[in-house]
Amino acid sequence: MPKQLTLDFFVRKHPQSSGRTVIDSESAEPIPVPVKTEDEATMKSVASFADRQKPSTPQCQTQVFIAEPLIRRVRPGLEAFRAQPTASLTSASASPSPRGFSTPGASPQQGHLKASASPLHSSIPQKNLSSKRRAASTSEESHDDIRSPNQGKQAPTTGFTRQYASIRKRLDSNTVLYIRKGRFFELYEQDSIFGNVTMGLKLTRHASSMSMCGVPDYMLDKYIKLTLDSGKRAAIADEMPEMDKVEKVQKRQVIAVYSPGSVSSALLLGTQYGILYIEDRGSADSDSKYLQFYDPLRRLILVKSEPCTMGEVIALIQRLSPAEIVISSCVYELVRAQLSVYFLGPIYAYNNLYATVCSTNLLWDISLDALESCANISSAFRYYLNYLLATDKRLTPIQQGDIAEYLTNITLSGIFRLPQNSSPIATLPMLTLSSLGILPLCSADSLARFEAVDSSVFEVYNNCVTRDGSQMLKMWLMNPLYDVETIQLRQNAIKLFADSVNHKHVEAVLTSLKAVGTSLYYLVLGCRSNCHFNSFNVLEQSTLSNRLFVQLLVTIIRTCSAAEALHTLLGSNEKNVQSNEMLRHFSSSNSCWKFLETLYNKVASMFEVDTPQTMLRKDFKLSANSNEPNLQIVDALLDRIEQRYVEYLNTLAQTHRLSPSLKDYPLTALTPATSTAKVYTFSPFPDRHLVIGDSLIPLAKQSHFARIEGITQISSTKTAGRFSVLDPLPNETIAAANLATRATESQSQYNQQALCRLLGVDVTVDGATQGTRAKVKLLIQALDKVAFRRLLELESFLLRRKNSILNTLKLDLLVFLFEHEDMIREMCSIFSQVDVLCCFSKLSRIYAHVPWSYPLFQPPVHEQEHILDISKAYHPIALKLSQARLKAWVPLDCNFQNNKMLVLTGCNMSGKSTAMRLIGIAVLLAQIGAPLPCSGMVLTPYNTILAKIGNEEDIRSTFQKETADCAELLQEALRPDARSLFLLDEFGRGTDSTTGDALAEAVCRQLTQLNLRAVVSTHSPLMALKLEQDKQVRLCHMSYEITASGIQFKHTLCHGLCTRSFGSQVARLAGFPTELLEQCDKHTRGFIYSCILSTMEAVEDMLGQK
After folding, report:
1. Which PROSITE patterns match (predicted)?
2. Of 212, 231, 288, 578, which residue is 20 to 30 A from 125 by alpha carbon distance?
């Protein structure tokens, strides 16, 4: 059976229209122009999208009033249609409705285009315009989409334009509407401008003067993904099988609304997923926020009932990794400014439109019951989710869960740990992560997510080849281990992979993992979220597209290849694997690999599989295994129908003596019809129109040909004529095809008995016949007796029967995957951990110009024992420097010995903060098992790592934030079971020196009473001398040297006190004006002189009193 004879080839019938319209002009008489029908008037053109980073931009400026998403990620060219609120509102009130279907009270949030002084019609091509008409219309078209106000007439309205307006008004201005027309999904009005500027689509004009552009239906996923990546939402309006009785056009209805955080399909899923909702329930001055999170893959609503501070919100953002944030707050801009430092995705403000359309059930004319089991979520968040998920009412209801339990399960499921009954995860507040520069911060001008302003430890260590591997590394950095045995298992595995003997095998593993792409676990979760289950939780139907299902099969095949590469690597090191419990868990003895082998055999027995490259081609058609008896019967009957079509065409050629003009005669197979047909053929299923080129039968004689053959002439073009030779079927539309692809074998209308009845075969005879060949012979004999004009009905049934068999196999495979979801999760977790371990093993080769070592851990003999000794350590971010600059870097040596606290003094720019960060980073990396750029390190593990270094952007005053952060860290350090590393940089500098020094001294004395090791920096020699009186405190400073040319920093940690900060010398190095520096020195000498006099007077007073 040829590949073109499938359900994918639905061809809409072209309606006839003879209406006329008039285009007015001030400079010329009206020229009557035939109105094109809905399908004929649509010019579908898709510009190539070769360079996503440089989208095309309009050639002239256009004023467009569009409520832009309040996000920080702005693509080049978006400035061309930024909102102009004042001008747009003025023009909206002064001009009449720009389109015939617009209502007088249309809200400006609908995003209607406004007239501009710069015409845009030059960037939108118009076909078949005479020079006279072009000259007449140029003077009046001030915009491609809007007629000039002085024209006084609106563009003609049609049933489609009114239908479009009815759908569009239910969507907010930040949602791009893709509406199907035939084989294209089209964008209109402000959406078309967005498609042109952001995605490079070519603008054209609809018959109703609406600007438009379109994308082929097979490329819809690609452009939906681009829409979501640009911070917009996307709505899809598809054609329904029935007609719209009011507008007299094909009915169209929204079938899906996507936002960056609500997608679950692997074809649309990005590096993050989920929606975080933040709400203020108190006053605007309150710092308390209430959080709710939606996980689209697991269909869970997570509610945090207790209020959160902004610090806790930021920490949860890093751990949840949402794809979008929605804020319902009277201080939206303030909250957005705080979050934008840590989150680069879209940050939306809640729109009251959601409450309007959802609370009155005006959304998509269906019941809103997806969230009926979630009782504790905010009403505003419920409205927003219903806006996105109302079309998913047939899917599994969304469940509610606890956010703390969710995070624990996600974290521990991805970490192999010993012992299994404990929780060996160290506490690491978000403040510590940001102070140490572990994760990248967002850039305001970034175009890609996770792009950092400065380098971070994550960026240096992240050489993972998979997205899941990068997420696993991030999870390890945010959850350092406290159990020494588990850390050592990781170290031994990294050493094994770093061995030069295994380089080839390691590269093979990484190559195979990179080919897998999206993990099988996330694909299965996405498939589950798009399946229909009955009340007994039994899978009934799946809405997965063929492309997504093929991607699932390809991932299974590639996962098997990755497993073979991993087993080859571990098998070549059998002795080391058996001595390492973690690697033994990863080896072929794990039951998850036996499941994977069973899964692959099941796929091969169900479907006709090919190489992954072949299966991912857009023309690949998934089919069931040819050994399936029912499928053999269907294919045999479809082949026989094609033979009858060919026989009809050959007979037609002989009758009308067309054979001399044919390339190959007689015909042996059908070929798809084209607009420039040189031979005659049938157009693809389902209409089976006969297409004859004018080289065979001239257009003038085609009507005569139709009368002779008793067929109906549908339409004629310059190159071919279309004729209806078969009885058309009712409701044969693209929507009917989409519905037919969901058919299952259990449905009676597509089973074997229904086929027998359609062919007039006795069902009992068919059932009694033994063997597939005998059944095929019997059914073909019955098929040959069927009238030719009924072949279309039979072909339609057989193709649906074929889909029924295929979809039954799909459901069986999905049920098998869902039943073994835990196995799949464990298997993908192993792959992610192996990716991270291989990534660590390559660090010594990537940065070979510095020494690398693995820290040694010494469990404490008693609870108060702490060991921390670092030798010749390089800051990880310094590894990004050139080798010449890195040679000038002075590695750090640090040894606490028996001291509990190091008080670090020194002049500005001497490296105090860098040294403190390096100590914290070294401890953190050591406790995830990673190698370190140092000569050696010995430590006892810490279960709490606390750091406050540097200042971060915040709306609060410097001193308020400083004291709040310090209080948060002290609360963690005061836990009875805490063994902490505490790093505090220049606390108290935000207020006067007397109060600041007193607070810092009080904090330091409190720390000396706790079970920890601390490094505290200060510029106050007096406070440092007071603390030195405690035997547990040692004074240190960053060395320097005064030369004739100025001060030189040695960046070496030395014992003793630094009594001067050398602020003026540092300011001179920074380029401070010389005049101001001279004044500074003068004021300093005067201040010192006055202090000496005050001290002498105080001494004399004291002596006089005695």
Report:
1. DNA_MISMATCH_REPAIR_2
2. 231
The amino acid at residue 364 is: W
Q: What pLDDT score was predicted for residue 556?
A: 95
- Dist CA 514 CA 512 (whole Å): 5
Residue 1011 in contact with residue 1003, Cβ under 8 Å?
no
Residue 284 CB contacts under 8 Å (≥ 6 apart), including other chains: 329, 330, 331
CB 277 within 8 A of CB 382: no
What local confidence, expressed as pLDDT, does residue 952 receive? 65
Whole-model pTM: value is 0.76
Cβ neighbours around 961 below 10 Å, total: 18
For the chain, how are helix, strand and coil distributed in percent, rounded to 5? Answer: 45, 15, 40
Thinking of the domain 159-258, which architecture would CATH place it in?
3-Layer(aba) Sandwich (3.40)
pLDDT of residue 122: 31
DSSP string, 198-215: HH-PPPEE-TTS-EEEEE
Domain 467-624+820-843 class?
mainly alpha
Q: 856-1061 — its CATH code?
A: 3.40.50.300
**Do residues 338 and 330 touch, judged by C-beta distance below 8 A?**
no
From residue 575, alpha-carbon distances to 494, 572, 581 in Å are 15, 9, 12
Residue type for position 251: K
Token code pair at residue 1019: 């510029």
Structural domain boundaries of the chain?
159-258, 467-624+820-843, 856-1061, 1073-1105
What φ, ψ does residue 1090 adopt, rounded to 5°?
-65, -35
At position 461, the amino acid (one-letter code) is Y
Residues 6+ apart with CB under 8 A from 498: 841, 842, 844, 845
Is there a common fold for 159-258 and 467-624+820-843?
Answer: no
Q: Using one digit for the tens of pLDDT, what is the confidence trace for 560-618?
A: 999 999 999 999 998 889 999 999 999 988 899 999 999 999 999 999 889 999 998 87
Residue 322: cis peptide before it, omega within 30 degrees of 0 = no
pLDDT at position 738, please?
58
What is d(CA 258, CA 433) in angstroms, rounded to the nearest whole number?
A: 32
The reported pLDDT for the residue numbered 513 is 93
Q: Cα torsion for 107, 109, 110, 114, to the nearest 10°?
A: 90
The two tokens of residue 806 are: 């295929």
CA distances from 533 to 102, 226, 298 (A): 41, 31, 14
The Cβ of residue 439 has, within 10 Å, a number of other Cβ atoms equal to: 19
Question: For residue 902, which phi and psi values (nearest 5 degrees)?
Answer: -110, 120
- Can you state the angle between helices 791-819 and 629-655, rounded to 10 degrees? 150
Select from 971, 1037, 980 the least CA-distant residue to 1008: 980
Q: Which residues pair with 175 in a beta bridge?
A: 233
CA 662 vs. chain centroid, Å, equals 52
Q: In this structure, is the dihedral angle defined by the CA atoms of residues 627, 633, 638 and 643, taken in order, positive or negative?
A: positive
* Those residues with Cβ within 8 angstroms of residue 593's Cβ, 6 or more apart along the chain or in another chain: 563, 567, 827
In eight-state DSSP terms, residue 401 is E
The rounded distance, in Å, linking the Cα atoms of 474 and 428 is 13
Question: Hey, which residues does 815 pair with through a beta bridge?
Answer: none
Euclidean distance between CA atoms 497 and 931, whole angstroms: 13
Backbone angles phi, psi at 986, to 5 degrees: 50, 55
Sequence letter at residue 207:
A
Residue ranges in the chain modelled with pLDDT below 50: 1-153, 360-368, 443-453, 675-677, 768
The Cα-based distances of 361 to 370, 386, 460, 524, 1000 in angstroms read 13, 10, 51, 32, 59
CA of residue 933 relative to chain centroid, distance: 34
